[in-house]
């Protein structure tokens, strides 16, 4: 999954002022885990992602429904249907894509192929919101990340 997200970021973040190379990696991989490179993400998080990235990001995310994508990225369906593929989106969308990609990769480490399903299932500890919806800002993202860590290590959620 991380490789698929990297491909989306490399293709859709490329611009004349910020040259990406095909060998650039947004995720650091070790034997047991894969983590978002936060330095690289912070460098690119203020860049505009092109609207065409949204469909490719959705495929990479393996989220069950488009509605889950809209909730995770705070995008509405009508805006997406009107947006030309080359239209730049607000930089906040790029930042959300990085955060959500990081959490989806983490959820997949914890739950295997059911990770995206877990991210799209309402949870009582998140006020009945899905983890993806709850993580639309960094504070919510930290809570979801903490929950995933606790679940993986058998701690208290």
Question: Can you tag this structure with a few keywords?
Answer:
2 strands, single chain, 4% strand, 56% helix, two-stranded antiparallel ribbon, mainly alpha, 9 helices, 157 residues
What does this structure look like?
- The protein is mostly helical.
- Helices cover 56% and strands 4% of the residues.
- The protein has a two-stranded antiparallel ribbon.
- The longest helix has 21 residues, at 91-111.
- It is globular.
- The model has no long low-confidence stretch (mean pLDDT 87).
- Total count of strands: 2
In terms of quaternary structure, the protein is single chain
Strand content: under 5%
> Radius of gyration over alpha carbons?
15 Å
N/C terminus separation: 25 Å
* Mean pLDDT score: 87
Can you write the helix and strand succession as a string?
A: HEEHHHHHHHH
Structural category: mainly alpha
User: What does the main sheet amount to?
Assistant: 2 strands, antiparallel
Shape summary: globular
User: What's the helix count?
Assistant: 9
How do the strands and helices of this protein lay out in sequence?
Elements: H1 2-13, E1 27-29, E2 34-36, H2 38-44, H3 53-61, H4 66-73, H5 77-82, H6 91-111, H7 115-119, H8 131-134, H9 138-153
Antiparallel strand pairs: 1-2
Q: What does this entry show, briefly?
A:
With 157 residues, this protein is mainly alpha-helical. 56% of the residues lie in helices and 4% in strands.
């Amino acid at each position: 999954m991380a490789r698929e997200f990297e491909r989306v970021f490399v293709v859709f973040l490329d611009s004349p002022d910020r040259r990406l190379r095909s060998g650039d990696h947004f995720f650091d991989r070790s034997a047991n885990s894969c983590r978002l490179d936060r330095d690289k993400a912070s460098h690119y998080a203020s860049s505009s992602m092109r609207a065409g990235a949204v469909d490719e990001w959705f495929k990479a995310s393996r989220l069950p429904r488009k509605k889950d994508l809209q909730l995770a990225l705070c995008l509405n369906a009508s805006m997406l249907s009107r947006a030309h593929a080359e239209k730049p989106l607000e930089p906040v969308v790029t930042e959300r894509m990085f955060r959500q990609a990081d959490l989806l990769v983490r959820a997949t480490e914890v739950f295997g192929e059911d990770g995206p399903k877990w991210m799209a299932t309402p949870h009582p500890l998140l006020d009945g919101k899905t983890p993806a919806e709850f993580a639309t800002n960094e504070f919510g993202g930290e809570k979801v990340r903490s929950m995933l860590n606790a679940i993986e290590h058998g701690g208290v959620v």
